[in-house]
Amino acid sequence: MIEVKNITKSFDGKTILHDVSATFYTGKTNLIIGQSGSGKTVLMKSLVGLIKPEEGEILYDGRDIMKMTAEQMKAIRKEIGMLFQGSALFDSETVLGNVMFPLIMFTDKSHDEIVERARFCLERVNLKGAEDKYPSEISGGMQKRVAIARAIALNPKYLFCDEPNSGLDPKTSILIDELLSDITHEYNITTVINTHDMNSVLGIGENIIFINKGYRDWVGDKEKIFTTTNQAVSDFVFATRLFQEVKDYIVKTEKPEK
Amino acid sequence: MIITKSMSDFGRYCLFIARVFSIPDKWKVFFRRTVTEISKLGVDSIPLVIIISIFIGAVCAIQMELNTTSPLMPAYAVGLATRDIVLLEFSNSILCLILAGKVGSNIASEIGTMRVTEQIDALEIMGVNSANYLVLPKIVAFVLFMPVLGAFCIFTAMLGGIGVAVFTDLISLSKFTYGLQAMFNEWYVWYGLIKSLFFAFIIASVSSFFGYYVKGGALDVGKSSTDAVVCSSIMILLFDVILTKLLLQ
Fold first, then answer.
1. What would the pLDDT profile of B188-203 be if each residue is shown by its tens digit?
2. Cα(A123)–Cα(A95) distance, rounded to whole angstroms?
3. For residue B180, what are the contacts with CB-CB under 8 A and spacing of at least 6?
4. CA proximity to B180, closest of B203, B157, B205
5. Which residues of A180-200 are buried (b: 16+ CB within 10 A; e: fewer)?
6. How do strand A63-64 and strand A14-24 relate by DSSP bridges?
7. What is the pLDDT of residue A256?
8. In the predicted structure, residue B105 carries a pLDDT above the cut 70
9. pLDDT at B221
10. Rounded Cα–Cα distance for residues A225 and A208 (Å)
């Protein structure tokens, strides 16, 4: 579990995150949603330690990463897997090489064991047969799956995904969402997903944190979001006519959120 | 304003170098990457070095012959002067200025692209010291291979001069080769070698610095690549003056 307590972050005198608190649960897909410029990327980068907030606490199962030394932080990073928006695969390495990378750097396994583990991770994300291809030779969806395989190679306790569906077609987006959800439950990982994709919100949102203008405005899940009385969340999630119609249909059959 | 920015950049460069020169996470990975970089930065530069050196050696010989027509000058002075120009300046300073363009832009654009595509962030998230992992093998590889490039340069530049003697009637081959061997000062070779090691370090480290701290997109990577070449070239010229004063006086 990751707990964020009262974090505040400013850039050039402008406060981006205002006293944000949130809890990200183990074994659940935790989603951070919000409009562009709302501060969710800053929150995500603060969570993984790329940005240091001025105030507050970020607790990884009780361990405050903001008070950690560089060595302690380095150790905790081995428990973290991250999926970047653009996949961030190493261009000079093959698909297999990318997945092997964290295993080579942080384990004392033999080469054969590393290859075996990397192949297992690739099979887990349904990428058997693409081992020898380079990132430039595979599609965006496949790149995302390689990045997921790389992120889970070291059996992380925490998985962070920055807009995992950006640039993907709806069908591939659903596949990636299902994969992330399956991996989260299968390995009991604390997964934090930063997303704009409303299909993801309504499909895998077990714990949803809505960030609005730097404030944590709403917390709930994919069921509660249909009946929320928070206008900002409602306007954001049900911005399209299709989602609005879906919401109207559900609201007719359910009671409003208390 | 410019002075403040320069001082700030120099401070960042020093901190960057401190991060680069930390102990590698895995020595095996470091050695593997160093060998790859020797191939990419060093071996791949050999054709360029050979082509440029042959022509510069030939031009030096022609210029010396055409511009030093004095009855007081022995004919072998053309070979001697060509050799000394190559040993003292061309095989290190001029060669490194040329390599700053090829190797420097290669390093800055490679690392800059990794920065803007979040590959460096990915390394950091994993707990890898990205500056050490990416940059140290490049610096070590280029500094190690620079003497080899210098040797290729000296050898082929002299071949260029010999080519002038063989294929033109400007100077006889025997006098030119005699000049190449006459009054040889071994220290000139060491002087050139020491300078080239400094310059190799400047090219690799300054270019890496510009690439590592790039912000933005593809345009900014291009700009950082240009800045890296310009800054490396200026630093090479500055250190050329300093080292020449220190080593030859």
1. 999 999 999 999 999 9
2. 12
3. B79, B80, B82, B83, B158, B161
4. B157
5. bbebbeeeebbbbbbbebbeb
6. unpaired
7. 55
8. yes
9. 94
10. 9
Shortest CB distance from A50 goes to which of B26, B121, B126?
B121
Q: How far is A89 from chain B (nearest CA, A)?
A: 6
All residues at 6 or more sequence positions from A46 whose CB lies less than 8 Å from its CB, including other chains: A4, A7, A9, A17, A52, A53, A58
Would you call A105 and B128 a contact, using CB atoms and an 8 Å cutoff? yes
Q: Consecutive sets of 10 residues in chain A, 258 residues long: mean pLDDT of each? A: 93 90 93 88 89 92 89 87 89 93 91 93 87 92 90 91 84 86 91 88 90 90 83 80 73 62
- What are the residues whose beta carbons fall under 8 Å from the beta carbon of B42, sequence distance 6 or more? B141, B142, B144, B145, B146, B148, B149
- The predicted model scores a pTM of 0.86
Nearest CA in chain B to A50: B125
Q: How far is CA A60 from CA A5, A75, A194, A219, B126, in A?
A: 11, 12, 18, 20, 16
B248 touches chain A (CB under 8 A): no
- Going B181 to B187 to B192 to B197, the CA torsion angle's sign is positive
ipTM score for this prediction: 0.81
Q: Quick one: pLDDT at residue A255?
A: 57
Q: Which of B104, B99, B19, B93 has its CA nearest to residue B51? A: B99
Helix (H) or strand (E) holding B143: helix B130-167
Q: How far is A241 from chain B (nearest CA, A)?
A: 35
| Residue A90 C-alpha, separation from nearest chain B C-alpha, in angstroms | 6
More confident residue, B17 or A244: B17
Indicate the domain borders of chain B: 33-248
pLDDT attached to residue B37: 96
